[in-house]
Amino acid sequence: MTAWLTSLRDRPIAESERAAAMATVTVLLLAVALLLALSRPSNRPRPTPLRHPGPSIAQRTLSVVAQATESGTAQLTPQVARAADRFLAGYLGYTYGHARASAIVGATPALLRSLRAQQTRVSPGMRVRRPHVVALHSTPAPSGLLRVSAVINDGGLVDYSIGLLLAAHDGRLLVSGLESGE
């Protein structure tokens, strides 16, 4: 059986077979290109580069109300949204290798020291991604802190969330801690 297949493979191709093979390959390539073009998720917004951020979802929709927790509801105020956006602009740039740790602002000195002390190694695949905030949700947290959950999209198939703990510090709202994704 293998000898027959080997002889079939090594035989010269007739001109009519060559034309049929070329037509088949052309049709297959066109079908694959059409399927790729149709399966591209065009309903997702294009991520904006972090160097020139446009208005975020928090600035456009300041009246977003988070889901109720057992202790009540918390509204995402403009001050909370600005504090989260200010921190996330630098933090996402730092996490994806687009900026240095010194670009992170809007955090308490202790959190800044902690983030700057960590050595982050960013893969080339992660560096090409452009993260942006899709949504912000605010809920009360224990001990008088305010918890903000930021939904992030970096061009991948799945959005992820970052939990921020905000606290009043010297008359301003600053991010005092991070929580793992939900």
Quick check: average pLDDT?
Answer: 79
**Helical stretch tally:** 6
The biggest beta sheet is recorded as: 4 strands, antiparallel
Main sheet: strand order: 1-2-3-4
Shape: elongated
Distance between the termini: 57 Å
Task: Please provide a written account of the structure.
- The protein starts with a helix and ends with a strand.
- The chain has 182 residues and is an alpha+beta fold.
- Strand 2 (146-153) and strand 3 form a beta hairpin.
- The protein has helices spanning 2-10, 15-39, 57-60, 78-95, 109-117, 124-127, and strands spanning 132-140, 146-153, 160-169, 172-179.
- The protein contains 6 helices and 4 strands.
- A 4-stranded antiparallel beta sheet has the order 1-2-3-4.
- Helix content is 38%, strand content 19%.
Q: Could you outline the blueprint of secondary structure elements for this entry?
A:
Layout: H1 2-10, H2 15-39, H3 57-60, H4 78-95, H5 109-117, H6 124-127, E1 132-140, E2 146-153, E3 160-169, E4 172-179
Antiparallel strand pairs: 1-2, 2-3, 3-4
